Amino acid sequence: MRRLFDYFTGTVFVELRGTSPERFFNVCRSRKIPLYEVTTRVTDKGTVYVAKMKLKDYFKVKHAAKKAHCIPYVRKRIGLPFFIKKYRSRIAFFAGGIYCFWLIWLLSRFVWDVSVTGGFVHTEEELLSYLRGTGVVCGMRCEEVDCTEMERRLRIDYPDIGWVSAELRGTKLFLRVAETDMPMLQEENTTPVHLVATTDGIVETLTCRKGTPLVKEGDVVKKGDILVSGVVSVIGDNDVEVNRYAVAADADITLKTVKKYTHSFSRKTEEKTFTGKEKTGYTFSYGNKKIFSHMPSHSYTNYAIITEDAVLSLHKHYPLPFRVQKSTVSEYIPEVRDYTKEEAEGLAKQALDRYLAYLTENRTTVLDAEVKTVVGKDTVKTEGKLLLLAEAWEQVAVQEDEWRQENVDEYRGNNDEPTGGA
Predict the structure, then answer these.
(1) Same domain, yes or no, for 251 and 349?
(2) Same domain, yes or no, for 352 and 407?
(3) Are the CB atoms for 308 and 326 separated by under 8 Å?
(4) Closest CA relative to residue 71, chosen from 35, 120, 28, 19
(5) Which of 186, 209, 242 is the last residue of a domain?
(6) Which CATH number goes with the domain that contains 12?
(7) In this structure, are 196 and 324 located in the same domain?
(8) Predicted local distance difference test score (pLDDT) of residue 408
(9) Which of 169, 186, 203 is the C-terminal boundary of a domain?
(10) pLDDT per residue over 189-204, tens digit each?
(11) Is the backbone of residue 227 left (phi > 0), alpha (psi -120 to 50) or beta?
(12) Cα–Cα distances in Å, from 411 out to 408, 414, 415, 420?
């Protein structure tokens, strides 16, 4: 602390030359002028004393030096007063530095970046759009960010988000979400429907909750067959049907089906051999506005543009609204070649794996896959069959004439009054 105070007030190192330096020290002591770090140094003119004193005390030793017949030569100056005096002609430079620090402090009072992580069903773009709709945007003051209210509104507006955390660090807002796998509540279907097979297959499982099952496990069905009917019969004495009514059939049904798989692509591919010739341009942006944009001119026939984006940041949690974008235009020579057999088979397997993953995401179980890849001269083709276990059914509306009955009056012969459940 003392060193910092001495730096702001200024200190000097003086070299005493004269006949009675000891008397100089005595006079300074009697006048309560402190001296520090007193040392001696032998020169060709004899022994000289070097002492350190404060700048304000240096102007008080004139009388002591006169009485001791000594001359205090200043050999070293340390402190802010000497620094200011030395660079007083560059005051604009230091003013600019002070203004720069003030500007950085001012920019640190605003939010300049929003990070969203953890979303799968709800993408980052969707959640950022939602935040903009609630007033949370880049450029807002940090004091205006209410993380608790933000978390509360997100949980209300997105019931499938089970956990959400909003945290403001520096000039960056972190939003982390965790989605639940709980299914959304759906309104009960009241329209009378049948459950109809959408493909040929074998009934693997059938659990009926509402309606009349027309097939059982192990039955072979064709596309368009009714699996669970939406028409329910009321049976009276002697197994006689006395009435019918229609319902929305509901059941868990899985069919074991066989699906053909076909995929083909060209065996030829184009590779890029870069020549090393390139030109670079820069784009400077402030917020959403581009201050300067430059795309270098070139005469390349085949070229690729590589863009690198950087954000000016004081710290990882203190990004500023200044961005620099570097665009590099690189020339390349296209070369067409054929995939090797191993490469072609690998690409075909990747395509098959992507398709199987797609089926799994859509609640379809792949029991077996019998496929074969043929690498031809120009084309690579994969064909085969997939054994699947899926919910291969759809709802079809029940027609009114399927369940309404006309009741004949035995005495009057009148059959105009239809009967049946409404």
Answers:
(1) yes
(2) yes
(3) yes
(4) 19
(5) 186
(6) 3.30.70.120
(7) no
(8) 47
(9) 186
(10) 678 999 999 999 999 9
(11) alpha
(12) 9, 8, 11, 20
Looking at the 3D structure of the chain, how many domains does it have? 4
Residue with token string 């002492």: 51
- Burial of residue 323 (CB within 10 Å: 0-12, 13-18, 19+) is middle
CB 318 within 8 A of CB 278: no
| Burial label, 408 (beta-carbon count in 10 A; 0-12, 13-18, 19+) | exposed
The pLDDT value given to residue 225:
94
What does the block give as tokens for 297? 């001119």
Same domain? 145 vs 284? no
CATH code, domain carrying 105: 3.10.20.310
Same structural domain for residues 39 and 75? yes
List the domain range (segments joined by +) for residue 102: 91-186
Q: Whole-model pTM? A: 0.54
Write out the H or E segment, with its range, that includes residue 124: helix 124-133
Q: What is the pLDDT of residues 171-183, one digit of tens each?
A: 889 999 988 765 5
CB 170 within 8 A of CB 317: yes
Report the Cα 379 to chain-centroid distance in Å. Answer: 39
At 238, is the pLDDT very low, low, confident or very high (cuts 50, 70, 90)?
confident
Residue 377 CA to residue 267 CA, distance in Å, equals: 7
